[in-house]
Amino acid sequence: MATGERRLLRAHLFTPVSEPLWACLATEHRRIYYFASSLREEKLLIRVQARFCPPAAGAPTRVRTMGRFLFRTDLYRASDSVLMASSLVDKALRVPGQMKPLLTESERLLAHIRGRG
Predict the structure, then answer these.
(1) 21-38 pLDDT, tens per residue?
(2) Helix ranges, the chain (H)
(3) CA nearest to 71, candidates 27, 115, 17
(4) Could you tell me where the beta strands, DSSP code E, fall in 13-62?
(5) Per-residue pLDDT tens for 74-99?
(6) What percent of the chain is helix, strand and coil (3-state, nearest 5)?
(7) Which domains does the chain have, with CATH numbers?
């Protein structure tokens, strides 16, 4: 499921998120629901939806929370399209203050999101 999240952020988001910025995502809450299983050689389909919540205003700190991603990931068996599992994950984007390139990238992401709203 994490692979699906990473692919979404790297390739399918309106502005791709770099691997170093992806590494700044901290899981705060996760719920996983299991419904079915599969054989080892079964192919799987992954569907990921993401919502971004901008940060609340606050003074800069050593580690800045630049916003949150809320992910819903559904895992299906390819052979019969049966929903096998569903995951709901809340991840905070926490960037160390000394990582200027990552702060710049996250601020560009925020500006792009605010410009769309």
Answers:
(1) 888 889 999 999 999 999
(2) 2-7, 19-22, 100-116
(3) 27
(4) 25-34, 44-53
(5) 999 999 999 999 999 999 989 887 88
(6) 25, 40, 30
(7) 2-116 (3.10.129)
